[in-house]
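User: Design a sequence. Structure:
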């Protein structure tokens, strides 16, 4: 099965946050601190990812109720991309403060974005399962590819590449949505 444009965003999000960030954040810290401090710092940031999701879900769901799930989803995707740009630029801690809560927003608003694209008669279970499967594929490929790529590319370069791919993925999804709206 080929991924739909929105699935590409979920693949990239899984790949980037669950792969590149999870693998590289401690390595980045280890350059400037001792190993123990780097491991503790990396662990805290990775724990924040899940804590951020727990806090972000109800917060961003309430914001989405007011402004629309797709609008908040796009803003969260852009801010996640900016987090990757921060790391690529050497601003690591700010990255966590920007990226991780908005990753939680993407996770919690993803089902609403998928459901919004369905017809009234369409069953939501299949598309939601597809979305999760593609995100999980990205999350599985992320650590694997990142580990091998570290032999050739710095952690910062990999974050920059993920930011570029997220930008392209967002444009691809946006263009597909526009074409679907214009179709008779």
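Assistant: Done.
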């Amino acid at each position: 099965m080929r991924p739909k444009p929105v699935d590409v965003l979920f693949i990239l999000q899984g790949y980037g946050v669950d792969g590149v960030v999870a693998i590289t954040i401690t390595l980045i810290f280890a350059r400037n601190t001792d190993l123990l401090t780097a491991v503790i710092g990396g662990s805290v940031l990775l724990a924040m990812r899940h804590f951020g999701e727990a806090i972000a879900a109800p917060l961003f769901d309430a914001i989405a109720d007011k402004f629309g799930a797709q609008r908040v989803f796009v803003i969260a995707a852009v801010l996640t991309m900016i987090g990757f740009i921060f790391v690529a630029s050497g601003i690591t801690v700010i990255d966590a403060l920007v990226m991780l809560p908005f990753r939680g927003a993407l996770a919690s608003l993803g089902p609403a974005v998928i459901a919004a694209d369905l017809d009234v008669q369409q069953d939501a279970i299949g598309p939601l399962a597809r979305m999760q499967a593609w995100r999980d594929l990205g999350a599985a490929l992320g650590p694997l590819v990142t580990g091998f790529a570290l032999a050739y590319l710095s952690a910062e370069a990999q974050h920059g590449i993920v930011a570029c791919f997220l930008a392209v993925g967002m444009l691809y999804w946006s263009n597909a949505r526009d074409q679907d709206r214009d179709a008779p």
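The chain is about 85% helix and 0% strand. The CA atoms of residues 24 and 155 lie 6 Å apart.
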